[in-house]
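Key idea: predict the complex, not the pieces.
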Amino acid sequence: MEEMTSLLTQHGLALVFANVLLTQAGVPVPAIPILIVAGAFVSQGQIALAPLILVSVVASLVGDTLWYAAGRRYGYRILRTLCRIAIEPDSCVKQTETIFERWGAPSLMLAKYVPGFSTVAPPLAGTMRLGLPAFLAYSAVAALLWAGVPIALGAVFHAEVERALEWLGSMGTGAVAVIAAIVLLYVGVKAVQRFMLIRFLRMARISVEELRDLMRQESKPLVLDVRSAMARKLDPRRLPGAVAVDINAPQAALAAVPPDRDVVVYCS
Amino acid sequence: MDQGYRRVRPLEGGLEAWIEAGGQIEQFEVMS
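Result:
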């Protein structure tokens, strides 16, 4: 632990930059702990505040801009790939789209605090063709808020941070191994739960092949396009005969449809 | 999406999967 502390004192800014960049690029490593520790180091005079803030904001912007560029280039495909990490790709795309549609570009400023939205917001901004200057301005404010809070907390509670570091150091490598095993077990349990849920959801879905077969039959299914108006404007393609429907009020479209008729929806 | 006894199923992979599989497509009218 002492080695870690001295490493942070010597290469603090580089480590913060690398950690924040990895986090913002989508690697599931937390960045908040290192920012809190760096904040504590600031109050002890071991790291300068201005470069620390600058490095955090720049690293965050680099990560976000990469995703933004990917969103501009690949559109919805990149969103769906990202959302695959989430449990339900369709609902993930739909949910993030709704947040962006409702709040517009300023939603980027709070994106980092909304679970699931933080990774998806930059590519979504690219997909929605938000201009680069506006994207950078909102993302810079977002990064400043996101990094500034833990740094300030670390600076205010530097004594507690120091005690926590000492306590971790006194635990030795055995204790660290136990903590790592608990974390691995937690991740494993979550992975199994996710696998079971995805299997269940797949059973409730219709595949492209099944839908094709169904469309060839006499009793064709009713196909509903429940994407947002913005998504339909960006990509006006639709399945043959698909009816545009507001997902929050599908009753109107279903009112005249016999109850035994199959209904297929797509939301991305 | 449960509509009582009505069978409502989401399309796996959405529009993109349909297009990728070579499915026929149409266009929505120009929207405001």
